[in-house]
Specification:
OB fold (Dihydrolipoamide Acetyltransferase, E2P), six-stranded antiparallel barrel, 33% strand
C-alpha cells in the first residue's frame, strides 16, 4: 500500500529544484556574458606564404625596368625600282652579305625592250647634235674664208691708194682717180668689219644654237640611264655589309615598283628597344644611363629616344649600347632593360610591395615581436624597380609584409607563424 509522504520533505525537494534551476540560469547568463566579451580569434597566416622586408635608410637609386628586343641600329630595306617577276632567290635570311651581293633575281622583258629603244633615241639625238655642230662649223669656215678675202682686198686697195697718191703728187694721175681709190679702200674696210662681226655673232650664238640639241641628248641619256639602272636593279643587290634579315617575296611572285623585297642590317651595331609602363615613363629623359640584360650578359648603354605616344599602356624607349656585345647577342633577341632615373643619398626605403602607386598611402602589416602583424597606414613616395621610398608610417628596422594581403582586409591584426 502507498505511504503518505511527509509534506516537509516535499517542500524541501521543491526548494532544492528551484535553487538548482536558478543557479543553472545564472551560470548560463554569466557564461553568455563572458563569451560575448571575448574578442574573435586572430586569423593565422603561414610565414612561408608571405613576403616580408625590412625598412632601411641609405642611398636610394630610382630605376625603371622594361622588356623588349635587340634591333639593329642600321636597317636597310631594298625595294623594287620597277615591276617584275621573281625568278630566283639566291640567298636566304641569315646569310652574310656585302655591298653588291646578289640576293634576288627579277625579270621584266618589256623593260629590256624599253632600254634598247631608249639607247636608240639617245644615239639619234647625239647624231643630230653632231650634224648641227658640223653645220655651224662649216658656216664658220665660210665666214672665216670670206673675212680673209676681204682683208686681202682691203690691203690691196690701201696699197693701190698709196701708190696713186704718190703719183698724184707728181701730177701723173687726176684727183678724181684718187677719190675712186679712196672709196674702194673704205668699201673694203667696211666689208672686213661686217664679216668680223658676223664671225663674232656666229661664235656667240653657237652655244644657244646647240642648246636645244644638247638638251635633247641629255634628256635621252637620262632616260636611257634610268631604264638601264632599273634593268640592272632586276638583280637585287645588298647596299651595305651585314646580315640578310628577311626576304619578303617568293619565286614566281609578281611585284610592283616600291615593293619591299629584302631587309639587310648590320648585326654588329645593335640597340635595345624596350617598353616601360606609361606610369613610370614620365621621368625618363634622353641621355640617362641604362643597362641591358641579354640573359647571357649585361651591357651598359644610354637612352637615345622616347616614343612620343603610349601604346597599350606602355611607352617605347630606345637604348644605345656601349662596349662589346655579350655572347649570343643578335637581332630580335629578348632582353630586359633597366634605366637609372636618379640617385638619392639619404632615404628611408623598403622593398617595393606588390601594390600601391607613387605618392600614395597604402596599408601594410607591420610584424610584431609576439608573432602578430598589425595593419599600419604607410605613406610612400618615389618608386624604383626594387625599392620604394617610405615617407611616413614606418621607422628604420621595421619589418613589414610586402605580399598581397587583400584577403585579410577585414582584419587589423593577423598571426604570422
Amino acid at each position: 500500500m502507498d505511504l503518505q509522504r511527509d509534506p516537509a520533505v516535499l517542500k524541501a525537494k521543491q526548494r532544492r529544484r528551484v535553487a538548482m534551476a536558478g543557479a543553472t540560469a545564472i551560470g548560463v547568463i554569466a557564461l553568455s556574458v563572458t563569451v560575448s566579451r571575448l574578442e574573435p580569434a586572430l586569423p593565422t597566416v603561414s610565414a612561408a606564404t608571405v613576403w616580408s622586408g625590412t625598412v632601411r635608410r641609405g642611398p636610394f637609386v630610382r630605376e625603371v625596368r622594361g622588356t623588349g628586343t635587340l634591333v639593329p641600329e642600321e636597317i636597310r630595306w631594298i625595294t623594287a625600282t620597277t615591276s617584275g617577276r621573281v625568278e630566283r632567290i639566291v640567298l636566304q635570311p641569315g646569310a652574310p652579305v656585302e655591298p653588291g651581293t646578289v640576293i634576288l633575281e627579277l625579270s621584266n622583258p618589256d623593260l629590256a625592250q624599253n632600254v634598247q629603244g631608249a639607247r636608240l633615241d639617245w644615239e639619234t639625238a647625239v647624231a643630230q647634235l653632231e650634224n648641227q655642230r658640223a653645220a655651224i662649223a662649216s658656216t664658220r669656215l665660210t665666214q672665216e674664208s670670206a673675212l680673209v678675202d676681204a682683208r686681202a682686198d682691203r690691203d690691196l686697195a690701201e696699197t693701190d691708194l698709196a701708190l696713186n697718191q704718190s703719183l698724184a703728187e707728181q701730177g701723173l694721175v687726176s684727183a678724181f682717180l684718187i677719190q675712186q681709190k679712196t672709196a674702194v679702200v673704205e668699201r673694203t674696210k667696211n666689208r672686213v668689219d661686217l664679216l668680223a662681226r658676223q664671225l663674232e655673232a656666229t661664235d656667240a650664238n653657237q652655244s644657244r644654237q646647240l642648246a636645244p640639241a644638247e638638251a635633247a641628248v641629255n634628256q635621252r641619256r637620262a632616260e636611257f640611264d634610268r631604264l638601264s639602272r632599273q634593268l640592272s636593279d632586276l638583280e637585287v643587290k645588298a647596299t651595305l655589309a651585314g646580315l640578310l634579315q628577311a626576304v619578303t617575296v617568293e619565286v614566281g611572285q609578281q611585284v610592283g615598283a616600291g615593293t619591299n623585297l629584302v631587309r639587310v642590317s648590320n648585326p654588329e651595331q645593335l640597340k635595345a628597344q624596350i617598353r616601360v609602363p606609361e606610369t613610370l615613363a614620365r621621368d625618363i629623359a634622353v641621355g640617362q644611363p641604362a643597362e641591358v640584360d641579354t640573359r647571357t650578359g649585361r651591357v651598359a648603354g644610354f637612352v637615345t629616344r622616347i616614343d612620343p605616344a603610349a601604346e597599350g599602356g606602355t611607352v617605347g624607349v630606345d637604348i644605345s649600347l656601349e662596349g662589346p656585345l655579350p655572347p649570343g647577342a643578335r637581332p630580335d633577341l629578348s632582353v630586359d632593360g633597366t634605366i637609372e632615373l636618379d640617385r638619392l643619398t639619404d632615404v628611408l626605403y623598403v622593398e617595393s610591395p606588390a601594390f600601391g602607386q607613387e605618392h600614395s598611402t597604402i596599408s601594410l602589416f607591420r610584424l610584431q615581436p609576439d608573432g602578430t602583424a598589425v595593419r599600419t597606414p604607410v605613406a610612400i613616395g618615389r618608386r624604383s624597380v626594387q625599392f620604394v621610398e617610405v615617407v611616413d608610417g614606418l621607422a628604420e628596422g621595421d619589418r613589414v609584409v610586402l605580399s598581397d594581403m587583400s584577403s585579410y582586409d577585414a582584419f587589423d591584426r593577423v598571426t604570422v607563424e
